[in-house]
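Posting for a labmate who doesn't have an account.
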Amino acid sequence: MPARPTRVLLADDHPLVRAGVRKVLEAHAGLEVVGEAADGGEALRALGQTEADVLVLDLAMPGSDGFEVLRRARALRPGLKILVLTMHANAEYVARAISLGADGYLLKDSAAQDLVASIEAVVQGRVYHSPAIQRELARMVRDGTTQPGPLVQLTEREREVLRRVAQGLSTREIAAHLGISARTVESHRANLMRKLDLRSVALLTQFAIREVLIDPP
């Protein structure tokens, strides 16, 4: 009897990225894409509805971001293999993703064969990191520490509010999206400005783009 293909769930908010990844994976008989998700909430729901072996996860998505999905997926499906596929190579993102349980960390500029190799590696219980990530990890070990970035000090709710502020939503719209009061949104926005030492919505937006919480316009 032939071996069952490895079942893969894709989570990325860009349809073209998902389509490209699906095409690469479906060219290999040993891999099967069993679902797609365009945001963190969809990814978590799909994990409860499919028997995926591997989650290929972007970190910058609307709703619950990839870090929150990582944390919750680890609790929901301890045996799931999680491969981060992102454009972000900075130390804070790498360290946080790995600390939350990512089995691999692949950059989006990697070759197609690297994507297949990374999935095969994590399924076999090995880790797989892009060469740039390997160099970053080596630097972190050599230095003995990494400086925590400003995102670390934000709560998940504050990151959700920040994303929506940066997307241009009004206080009332943010409140409706998140199911909280307008006053609570204003409180979160004030906390964001205080924690990040940023005094305007424009500066919050620039920060969100720089940290890839939202895509640049």
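Reply:
Got it, the structure tokens are right above this. The mean pLDDT is 87.
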